[in-house]
Design goal:
Layout: H1 6-20, E1 46-52, E2 58-64
Antiparallel strand pairs: 1-2
Length: 79
């Protein structure tokens, strides 16, 4: 089985988070216009990080995008 493309994985994590929260989450409209939403002032994009935890849960985080064009999905051991 191959891993999904990073954009598909990001989409799946967003859907999983929203479904866990009951299907929707209310944000202030300003949340979509802040500079960091679509990238930083230098044009760098963010990445999503999914970390498996030892208690069976996973942690979703927004992190700086790794440098270079080869960024993708990494599989790591549980914390």
């Amino acid at each position: 089985m191959s891993l999904p493309e990073p954009a598909d994985m990001s989409h799946a994590m967003l859907i999983a988070l929203l479904m866990h929260l009951g299907g929707s989450y209310d944000l202030p409209s300003s949340a979509l216009t802040e500079a960091d939403v679509f990238g930083t002032s230098d044009g760098a994009l963010h990445a999503l990080e999914l970390v498996p935890l030892r208690d069976g849960r996973v942690r979703l985080s927004v992190v700086p995008r790794p440098p270079g064009d080869g960024a993708g999905i990494e599989i790591r051991d549980a914390e």
